[in-house]
From TrEMBL, chain A:
UniProt protein name: ABC transporter permease
Organism the protein comes from: Nocardioides pinisoli
Record keywords, A-Z: Cell membrane, Membrane, Transmembrane, Transmembrane helix
Pfam family, one: BPD_transp_2
Transmembrane segments annotated in the record for this chain: 33-51, 103-125, 131-153, 160-179, 191-213, 220-239, 274-291, 324-344, 350-367, 374-393, 399-417
Compartments, as annotated in UniProt: Cell membrane
Topology in membrane: Multi-pass membrane protein
Signal peptide region: none
Stored PANTHER family: GUANOSINE ABC TRANSPORTER PERMEASE PROTEIN NUPQ, SUGAR ABC TRANSPORTER INTEGRAL MEMBRANE PROTEIN-RELATED
From TrEMBL, chain B:
Lipid bilayer topology: Multi-pass membrane protein
InterPro entries registered for this protein in UniProt: ABC_transp_permease
Protein name: ABC transporter permease
UniProt keyword terms in alphabetical order: Cell membrane, Membrane, Transmembrane, Transmembrane helix
Amino acid sequence: MSALTDPTSTGASPAPAATTGEVVTLVSRKTPVVLGVLTVGLALILLLQPESGDTTLRLARETDIFQLPDLTLPTMPTAWALTVVCALLTGESVRRYLAKKRTPMWLVSIFAVAWMTGFLVWAAVGETLPVVGLLAGSLALAVPLVFGALGGVLGERAGVVNIAIDGQLLFGAFAAAVVSSMTGSPWPGLLAAAVAGALVALVLGLFAISYFVDQIIVGVVLNVLVIGITSFMFSQVLAPNAADLNTSARFKVVPIPVLGDIPLIGPILFRQTPVVYLLYIAVAVVTFALYRTRWGLRVRAVGEHPMAADTVGIKVNRTRYRTILIAGAVAGLGGAFYTLVSVPQFNREMTGGAGYIALAAVIFGKWDPIRATLAALLFGFASNLQGVLSVIGSNVPSQFMLMLPYVVTIFAVAGLVGRSRPPAADGVPYRPQ
Amino acid sequence: MNDAVTNEQAPAPAEKESGGQPPEPGKGHSLMRQIVAGDAFAGVLAVVLAVLVGSVMVAATDDTVRETAGYVFARPSDFFSAVWDAVWGAYTALFRGAVYNNLVSDFATQIRPLTETLKFAAPLILAGLGVGLGFRAGLFNIGGRGQMLLAGAAAGYVGINFDLPIAIHLPLAILVGTVVGAFWAAIAGVLKARTGAHEVIVTIMLNYVAYYLLFYALSKEGLLQAPGSANPKSLPMKESAVLPDILGDRFNLHLGFLIALVAVAFAWWLLNRSALGYRIRAVGENPSAARSAGIDVGRTWITVMLIAGALVGLAGVNQVLGTVPDGVTLDLDAGIGFDAITVALLGRSRPLGILAAGLLFGAFKAGGFSMQAAEGIPVDIVLVVQSLIVLFIAAPPLVRAIFRLPAKEAK
């Protein structure tokens, strides 16, 4: 907090010292405990319900140039091997805890991958697991979540709690559908989505920044308001004139030449729609802007200690307005995914509360764009699991598989993330003296 | 609305709780007093403004209005009478559906809409109290949906599978549902108290977990699924577990509304008259100060979530045993878990405010359906008007600026 508002660092040179605003926490035993519980859980599943047979992992699609062969693994040995990996990682985490060191992020990430793979290999015994399809689909489904989470991070870093993410997504989807239907091209729709998101943010700013209304109230109510307006317009205007107003032109998949042909990674990351490529750019730009530019330093200063920022001459409320307008535009872009990529028309309440998931990703990611993006990807994976499981069938009731990601998130939030600290002035309106 | 009063009363339990330290008035005090003191007028204007915006939307999407707008300069009277017809039609239909139907002859049918309003208001009040109680302790409970789903499912399970006399069966079903709701919500409280996990994430995640748990129960015979059915739906409740109608068979109003009233009284007593309520408000105002005053903040969070979950759970019970007793379904919450947030906000997290807000939103709900049936206006307009009311009421200065009223006091 103090490093952020160092007056000298608002000068010409971007201050690398003022990094993530992370809290220095004491080493807690929560991480090893959670990892241990998860490992034991996996081992118990394998012990109590052993399966015989093979699991096939499909590592390429039919259309790929380089065809990796399908990988057929004996189910139980593979699952046990991965359990052992999980146990080893847990051991390492315990060792680090005893040595009073924190468990690093990479260890947790590897653990997560190993655990999830082990579980899926077991669950999909005798079936083929379309790895590429699963991951590519997860990325696609995570698009609105990531955009929404970026919008949330930007807003909250400037001290404005953005609960209206859902409204921004929904209004973006609505505007994108209407504009791209009228123009017959997805690009104007994308622009309209950004404008629509910014519009919701403008209302948020008007009430929260200029009129000091509680930001949670404004955010929640704006979500309801946007649901009301879009559903009303949908029934009254869009549905009767569906051909002219609600038949959006969709983005097509554009493979990136060379990159798209890399085995495994190519089809997942580089054979997507332009919206996904825009997402990569957005994540990079937001991260760079927030941590490496003068603008970002000011945004963070305004979010941490507005009075200090004001003292050194930063216009607090103007900075906040600007930031949440950008944040709204970013979130609005995510809304475009629904009507320009997913399905070619708008439907009432079509975001299905995704904005609240994005909000969870913001907090899960500790108000950091990269971590929030990863959290959003996890939730995308969760929602994509549904389709994959219904196709491959599995030996666990599908409802439990579908609930798993959310349970894991609770574990993760309780054990790995712990006390998350929002920007100090988050949600506090600033009244210049 | 009675914040000023409650703050004055606060010091009495304070002596016991915090070793005689008087509570800080806090920043919210003067602000709230300012709002409470003379803003009733602005509140009325806020409603007027919201209704006005709703009217514009109704008129702008009305076919006749758009037709006549084409020659508005040639014959403005056509245009304005079309606008009037559309708007007047909409709001009278809303009123007829929510309060009093003057189009029918016998008295019982005339006041039937009012009882429908009360029926719709009951779960909104219950869940609103739960969310509002959370707000008072500084907890944002978005998990209303999950708490309602599981509480409703548990009450439904008892209601379907047990054979008991009504005097035992009904209370048992209500109790089981309430307890399940309480414990489900308490998960978030415990995790926040013990590990610092943010309640917003946990309650959102628990919504999904609850949904899939219910989905599982509804697709498994022996748990909740009706035998021989492929749909995720249970059998109807046994007669002895259904909340009885309180005004006779001609009305749908059931005991749930009285439960809601009792809950309001309980919540009022809890917040304003009990030591626990004092601790809740202290934690909500400033957890650090509360901690140094000797209040166990974590335990207060857990208790609050237990009570909040019980209240929200009662809303789910009310749906399953009262409003829709023909079987547990996946959408038994009917969006009330989220509506409750708006209700709590409009009621400023105060029990009596929530009662009023719940009644208002219940009226909108009852009236909205009849408006849709009679005038063909989508029920969603109600959402727009509701949310605008909350927004405008929260920002009296904006309303003043719009109506060019003088500012209340120079700062």
